Amino acid sequence: QVQLVESGGGLVQAGGSLRLSCAASGRTFSRNLMGWFRQAPGKEREFVATINWTGIYADSVKGRFTITRDNPRNTVYLQMNSLKPEDTAIYYCAARSSTTWSSPAAGPTYDFWGQGTQVTVSS
């Protein structure tokens, strides 16, 4: 059974940093897209970043967030710097079962999802 478990969320002041982790178990994803999405209260889920061997970012986080992966640990990370109140959301880790790389920002193309971790940025 595949599981994705996020950690690292919390409360931080604007301008601060957090590092999210997503540990996968049940299979390896070394050749698959693994990414992060987020959902703020009252808003739809949106793409944040994803990675095969290079990162792909939403415009809203480009230059502030960095996605990396550690394939031996089957883990993906999201380093978030210069956080803003509008970054407040539940952050979800996601992974594809296939090795296709098209439409990397499309949530429905991801097959496995974590339970989410709350990130709150105070002003």
Give the tags.
single chain; 123 residues; mainly beta; 7-stranded mixed beta sheet; 4-stranded antiparallel beta sheet
Topology:
Blueprint: E1 3-7, E2 10-13, E3 18-25, E4 34-39, E5 46-51, E6 55-57, E7 65-70, E8 75-80, E9 89-95, E10 112-113, E11 117-122
Parallel strand pairs: 2-11
Antiparallel strand pairs: 1-3, 3-8, 4-5, 4-9, 5-6, 7-8, 9-10, 9-11
| Separate helix tally | 0
H and E order: EEEEEEEEEEE
* Shape annotation: globular
Helical content band: under 10%
Structure at a glance:
This protein is mainly beta and 123 residues long. It has strands spanning 3-7, 10-13, 18-25, 34-39, 46-51, 55-57, 65-70, 75-80, 89-95, 112-113, 117-122.
Task: Tell me what the structure shows.
The chain is globular and about 40 Å long. The N and C termini lie far apart (40 Å). The chain is mainly β and 123 residues long. Strands 2, 4, 5, 6, 9, 10 and 11 form a 7-stranded mixed β-sheet that branches. It has no helices and 11 strands. 0% of the residues lie in helices and 48% in strands. The model has no long low-confidence stretch (mean pLDDT 96).
